[in-house]
């Protein structure tokens, strides 16, 4: 499929199924609406799936791994080599998201979408578009064609997983320097200044933070990304992980499968997808508000409410995976609870 075909094929979520799910919640013997965001999530998932019989039993988290040329500007605490080390550990099950995913019953799918060096590991999907991006302070991070190929790769990965029966997708990433690219992309879309949108990422000194803000200012001034053209923005000041994850959001929407946003980087990828295809936001679920300063602004722009305010800022998909057990618990009540009709409690009347 071409990107235009993908965008054209995504349809809004089904409001009839949402109404049926809401009716089911309102029949359950408990105060109306009292499970708050858990009820909303089940209703929204019913709309996404087109049925009140919500099923998220099979789940996977796609972890896009890529390197970013902007690390040459001293914008990160650790070196670029960490990307490959952590990405390979995704394959052996030795990362934070892997431990959490085992608990949440999710498959971790690490993808080499653009790491600087080839990755070893049986479980890694080898989809490298290029061996790391160029330094965005010197010119565009990548070509428009490379960005488009990365988006389409994400779409295909999501479609393949859905074809294998996955009913809930999580997004995650690993890429030293990707909070710099994410802040740059967010600045362009939200028309904000880098000083307000930039944080310390995986850990950065105060001098490093000044360099990071300066690199973003330079990259935007030099490349002049067009905020009305998402592929222009992601190719000039973004990264391959951002482009690939934007594709996962589109692919999930195409398959009527909910896609959980993770932290700051993932939320910016969701914003790229939303700018490519506004209807795909119907298929997104928030997870947590990352500690990165711009995280809440980006989630608000997407109209998403995070479940968790837990001060997390790890990435990898840890936030997305963290809310899966919460969704399971919401669904347990939705499916298993007795109704007002079956008890002696008089049904609540909706508040007027
Ligand atoms: O998801 C987040 O909100 C998040 C916030 C800060 C850091 N990270 C992770 O840390 C890495 C990026 O940080 P940095 O400082 O190298 O730009 C990358 O591998 C992300 O997974 C992730
Ligand atoms: C060790 C390490 C693990 C990570 N996981 C996601 N980003 C990361 C950054 C570092 C530095």
Automatic annotation (TrEMBL):
Keywords of this entry: Cobalamin biosynthesis, Glycosyltransferase, Transferase
EC primary class: transferase
Enzyme Commission number: 2.4.2.21
InterPro entries linked to this entry: Nict_dMeBzImd_PRibTrfase (IPR003200), Nict_dMeBzImd_PRibTrfase_bact (IPR017846), Nict_dMeBzImd_PRibTrfase_N (IPR023195), Nict_dMeBzImd_PRibTrfase_sf (IPR036087)
Pathway in which this enzyme or protein is active: Nucleoside biosynthesis; alpha-ribazole biosynthesis; alpha-ribazole from 5,6-dimethylbenzimidazole: step 1/2
Keyword Transferase: yes
MF (Gene Ontology): nicotinate-nucleotide-dimethylbenzimidazole phosphoribosyltransferase activity
Catalytic residues (UniProt): 316
Keyword field contains Transferase: yes
Reactions performed catalytically: 5,6-dimethylbenzimidazole + nicotinate beta-D-ribonucleotide = alpha-ribazole 5'-phosphate + nicotinate + H(+)
Role played: Catalyzes the synthesis of alpha-ribazole-5'-phosphate from nicotinate mononucleotide (NAMN) and 5,6-dimethylbenzimidazole (DMB).
Family per similarity comment: Belongs to the CobT family.
PANTHER family: NICOTINATE-NUCLEOTIDE--DIMETHYLBENZIMIDAZOLE PHOSPHORIBOSYLTRANSFERASE
Name this protein carries in UniProt: Nicotinate-nucleotide--dimethylbenzimidazole phosphoribosyltransferase
Organism taxonomic ancestry: Bacteria, Bacillati, Bacillota, Clostridia, Eubacteriales
């Amino acid at each position: 499929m071409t990107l235009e075909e993908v965008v054209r094929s995504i349809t809004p979520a089904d409001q009839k199924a949402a109404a049926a799910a809401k009716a089911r919640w309102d029949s359950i013997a408990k105060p109306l609406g009292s499970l708050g965001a858990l009820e909303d999530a089940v209703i929204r998932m019913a709309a996404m799936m087109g049925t009140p019989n919500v099923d998220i039993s099979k789940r996977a988290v796609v972890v896009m791994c890529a390197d970013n040329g902007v690390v040459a500007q001293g914008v990160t605490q650790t070196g670029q080599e960490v990307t490959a080390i952590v990405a390979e550990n995704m394959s052996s099950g030795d990362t934070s998201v892997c431990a959490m995913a085992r608990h949440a019953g999710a498959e971790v799918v690490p993808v080499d979408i653009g790491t600087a060096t080839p990755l070893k590991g049986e479980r890694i999907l080898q989809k490298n578009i290029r061996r790391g991006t160029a330094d965005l302070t010197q010119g565009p991070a990548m070509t428009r064609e490379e960005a488009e190929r990365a988006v389409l790769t994400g779409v295909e990965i999501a479609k393949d997983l859905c074809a294998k029966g996955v009913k809930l997708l999580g997004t995650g990433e690993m890429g030293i320097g990707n909070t710099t690219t994410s802040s740059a992309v967010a600045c362009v879309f939200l028309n904000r200044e880098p000083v307000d949108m930039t944080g310390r990422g995986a850990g950065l000194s105060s001098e490093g933070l000044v360099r990071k803000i300066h690199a973003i200012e330079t990259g935007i001034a030099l490349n002049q990304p067009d905020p009305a053209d998402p592929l222009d923005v992601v190719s000039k000041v973004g990264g391959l992980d951002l482009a690939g994850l934007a594709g996962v959001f589109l692919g999930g929407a195409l398959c009527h499968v909910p896609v959980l946003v993770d932290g700051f980087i993932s939320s910016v990828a969701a914003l790229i997808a939303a700018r490519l295809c506004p209807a795909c936001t119907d298929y997104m679920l928030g997870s947590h508000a990352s500690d990165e300063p711009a995280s809440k602004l980006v989630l608000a722009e997407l109209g998403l409410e995070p479940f968790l305010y837990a001060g997390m800022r790890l990435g990898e998909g840890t936030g997305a995976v963290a809310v899966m057990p919460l969704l399971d618990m919401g669904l347990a009540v939705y499916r298993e609870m007795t109704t007002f009709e079956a008890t002696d409690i008089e049904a609540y009347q909706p508040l007027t």
